[in-house]
Design goal:
phosphate transport; Phosphate-bind_PstS; 13 helices; PBP_domain; single chain; alpha/beta; ABC_phos-bd_PstS; signal; D-Maltodextrin-Binding Protein, domain 2; 377 residues
Length: 377
């Protein structure tokens, strides 16, 4: 019965992702850019502008953090600023760790993080959130794709143990027998593996290593976290940095949010299900649908299932949170913060996500997010 409930929920969420999607040209990104713009079609912006409540929003809104959500932020900012011309939004995609640090130092109005706040970070937030604290608002979901560049190999299946050994420099060549056993029909070349990980503190790294630890604890001896712990390999800054390395380097493999996998082949992940699972929005939604809210009060931190057994449930997923003060926000930025976050969480805002390579939040979760945004003070 539990599995049936998960499958019904996943199908409902998949339908939401498809039916709610609006036409959007996904924006290219550069994780080292200082501000956030976007170059998608103007028709999307004009269609959305009439539905955005600008309220008393004005001035500059500084935010930073997760690079995984940057393509979604680009689309949201373009539509929002078309409607609210008195607001300028600068989102710096310098990684979840840097975003949380900047927020806790009072430098930004909100932060984006692919990991929920730790208890000590919530405690620290009380210094800047007068009479309140920081809360996690889940806003964006999606699969973490494992992209690879192996000439002549158009389909590749890997399991958690093999992925672990590749990223821990235990498997170093693409024709290794463990990879060959999972891919009996592939012509694997005698080519050195070039594994790339994030150089910055990253929520994507945190979720990726949580998956490895949960699904292959014997093969992955390291504790999960935002900082890369395994030995060897190469590194690059941000999601777009590692994705670019995969594009230009033969033999490369790395992990990044699906929206960065344009023109990059991605791994099908072998789970406990009968068939390997592709990195798609629908398959990620099936896994996110099983998440549980574990935060207390207005905090909506989620517990993800990294070892789903359901058919078509992609195990490598992340949820990006917007982190804001529940109380004690700065008076000059509060109207813009609430107005912009309200748009992101709205039906229109969530409707943009699927075409940009992301999964919208389940209805029962995003309803709570909207309620908590409206009560920010």
């Amino acid at each position: 019965m539990k599995l049936q409930r998960k499958n019904r929920r996943a199908l409902a969420l998949g339908a939401l992702a498809v039916s709610g999607a609006l036409a959007l040209t996904a924006c290219g990104s550069d994780d080292t850019s200082g501000g956030t713009g976007g170059d998608g079609g103007n028709s999307s912006a004009s269609a959305q502008a009439g539905n955005i409540d600008c309220a008393d929003a004005k001035g500059q809104l500084q935010a930073s953090g997760s690079s995984a959500q940057k393509n979604a932020i680009d689309a949201w900012v373009k539509n929002y600023t078309a409607a609210c011309k008195d607001v300028q939004i600068n989102y710096r995609p310098d990684g979840s760790g840097a975003g949380i640090t900047a927020f806790l130092q009072g430098q930004t109005a909100f932060a984006g993080s692919d990991s929920a706040l730790k208890p000590e970070e919530i405690a620290d937030s009380k210094k800047i959130c007068t009479d309140g604290q920081a809360i996690d608002l889940p806003m964006v979901g999606g699969p973490i794709a494992i992209g690879y560049n192996v000439p002549g190999v158009d389909e590749l299946v890997l399991d958690a143990a093999t992925i672990s050994e590749i990223f821990d420099s235990k498997i170093t060549n693409w024709n290794d027998e463990k990879i060959a056993k999972l891919n009996p029909d592939a012509k694997l070349p005698d080519l050195k593996i070039q594994a790339f990980h994030r150089s910055d503190e990253s929520g994507t790294t945190d979720n990726f290593t949580k998956y490895l630890k949960a699904a292959a604890p014997k093969a992955w001896p390291y504790e999960p976290g935002k900082s890369w712990e395994a030995k060897g390999g190469q590194s690059a800054q941000g999601s777009s940095g590692v994705a670019q390395q995969v594009k230009q380097t033969e033999g490369a493999i790395s992990y990044f949010e699906l929206s960065y996998a344009k023109d990059i082949k991605t791994v099908d992940v072998k789970t406990e299900a009968s068939e390997p699972v592709k990195a798609t929005i629908e398959n990620a939604t099936a896994a996110i649908g099983a998440a549980k809210v574990v935060g207390t009060g207005k905090d909506l931190a989620l517990e993800l299932d990294y070892t789903p057994e359901a058919e078509g449930a992609y195990p490598l997923v992340l949820v990006t949170y917007e982190i804001a003060c529940d109380k004690g926000n700065k008076a000059d930025t509060l109207p813009a913060t609430k107005s912009f976050l309200n748009y992101m969480a709205s039906e229109d805002g969530q409707g943009l996500l699927a075409d940009a390579g992301y999964a919208p939040m389940p209805e029962e979760i995003i309803t709570k997010v909207r309620e908590n945004i409206s009560s920010l003070s």
